Amino acid sequence: METVTKTTVGDSGGQPIVVRVEDLTKWFPLKTGLLKSIFSTEQPFVRAVDGINFEIHRKEIFGLAGESGSGKTTTGRLIVRLLEPTKGKVVFDGKDITKLSDRELKPIRRRIQIVFQDPYESLNPRMTLKEIVAEPLRVQKICKTEDELEERVKAILRDVELVPPEEFLYRYPHELSGGQRQRIATARAFVLQPDLIVADEPVSMLDVSIRAEILNLMLNLVQKYETSFLFITHDLAVSRHMCDRLGIMYLGEIVETGPTEKVIGNSLHPYTQSLIAAVPVPDPSSRRTGDVLSGEIPSPVNPPPGCRFHTRCPYAHMRCTSEPPRLVDVEPDHKVACHLYDGVSPSLS
Amino acid sequence: MPVLDVDGLRTYYKTLRGDVKAVDGVSFDVEKGQALGIAGESGCGKTTLALTILRLLPSGAKIVAGTVIFDGTSLGSLRDDEIRKIRWKGISLVFQGAMNALNPVFNVGDQIVEAIKTHEPDTSSKEAWRRAEDLLETVGIERSRATNYPHEFSGGMKQRALIAMALALNPLMLIADEPGTALDVIVQAQVLKLMRELKEKLNLSMILISHDLSILAETSDKLAIMYAGKFVEYGDVKEVFKEPLHPYTQGLVGAFPKINEPRKKLLSVPGSPPDLLNPPTGCRFHPRCPYAMDICRQEEPLLKNEGSGDHQVACWLYK
Fold this sequence. Notes:
The complex is a heterodimer.
Chain A: E1 17-29, H1 34-39, E2 45-57, E3 61-65, H2 72-79, E4 87-92, E5 95-96, H3 102-109, E6 112-115, H4 129-139, H5 146-159, H6 166-169, H7 178-190, E7 196-200, H8 208-225, E8 228-233, H9 236-242, E9 245-250, E10 253-259, H10 260-265, H11 270-278, E11 328-331, E12 334-336, H12 345-348
Parallel strand pairs in A: 3-8, 3-9, 6-7, 7-8
Antiparallel strand pairs in A: 1-2, 1-4, 4-5, 9-10, 10-12, 11-12
Chain B: E1 4-15, E2 18-30, E3 35-39, H1 46-53, E4 61-70, E5 73-74, H2 80-86, E6 91-94, H3 108-119, H4 125-138, H5 155-166, E7 173-177, H6 185-202, E8 205-210, H7 213-219, E9 222-227, E10 230-236, H8 237-242, H9 247-254, H10 294-298, E11 304-305, E12 312-313
Parallel strand pairs in B: 3-8, 3-9, 6-7, 7-8
Antiparallel strand pairs in B: 1-2, 1-4, 4-5, 9-10, 10-12, 11-12
Helix pairs in contact in B: 3-4, 4-5, 5-6
């Protein structure tokens, strides 16, 4: 097997920052009944994303991993501004885009694209594949003539290996398999040659045999177009394969972040460790014997006080129940938010 | 004697354009307390195979040939009311998409009670309710939650409740269609662990169906790889993973990103599964096979023993 040679593995330095997220927060107000809203002054919120920070460099693939309900998808949507943040900033190419008006945002939208999870729902069934892929080009008025437009569409279809492209141009999504649909969604995201692509669980709806093809395709395109990538997934084995750096999310917070090799190879946070232990190993002779984390992710309406993970953590002690841990450097470029590592931090942070 | 013995099973869907050969000559057996994993891509016939065993096929489908012998009884020749007694009591099925398989307007306990009282009408309501609570406890849900409605359960709890329901009548065999799909990693790991424990505790025979080889690696004893309606490889799960023989199996095993190994370029199986209306001649895998030879296009390979134990493969590379 050929090893993937990626220049950016483990070194994020050198390359400029494409997007930086500062204290990003999204609270969704919870609807309450009439009586409750009269007699209670407190408005409950779903704290989907609660003050997270990270940055993505040029040509880098940054992964966000965690269970459902940890806020990964909301984070992705905040970055492409499909949602308005409650608080915090998304700084894209040096500019805070959270306050921009729709008109000011349009040139930015050309540079940030998204690939959704479910290719059966993200493609308009009434549009031909050509129209689907050409739509971003039309919206942004990129091509002057129809011929130029068709050439751009054909070129990107070749890139996503739907060949010969002429055969696909006038087909409809229902004529395609799940893998081919996700190729079209990928083509639509790459056709504008954006600087940043958010991919929200792009392979979780696909059969395992097809997953590998789509992942390889995305890696190739990222290299070819030098795009930065935010890769959202719940599967740590996939993120290990795809990402240069990783952030592990739990209940709206990032609990561990750093280069993929360190976060997975030398995971420090008990939550990261249990996520890794939960990945099924495709090798029956090394069947997992360790304990599986019990319980489920608590409600983000009333997150537990202190460290949010303390209700499920095997190492929780008194301090974890009251004092929230801060995200601190444990070794260079490897941050973790856990009281177990507080003692190590002062010298480094 | 095996609990389940399937021989030469063929199930076709009748369509205007011809027969879709979803299951086309499948034979296997499952011993007491053994778990067989069946792996394959979407559309390879694995769900149809499960439905055929229990004769739960939709009206357009027809069992063309083959026998299914369960615990000494041939299921193919049973009358409708007789097979109804086998379902759930003999072989029970945990359907794919478990999230949506519970009735939203009845509480979970009542849904289990309904199954018990239908099959064992002599049971008193009180006794049935107690059994429902016991079952929930077996799968790790508190007894008091029996009065909850499905919307009060999380995805993982619904999946557990369905497993509890499937076990309500102490079946000899459990068929689980995609038991881990659509669940989060941690919840999936919890459910798979539960299935393993139940198998040990109750000495259950199981058939587990999934497209995800890693799920089957964790839960099965024997593994069958299904492609375009046929088994192309069969054997002890350890053997198949250690030495996958069929090029399709090799592709599937190589397609996994592994968490405990360095980054590698993933292998993949290029192309897509064939149209089962007109399956390719010869070996059905030949249009996607990197090693295809002339004989593969003309003659169909049969499952033959190869290597150690009962490891079998249907491929012309092995003569």
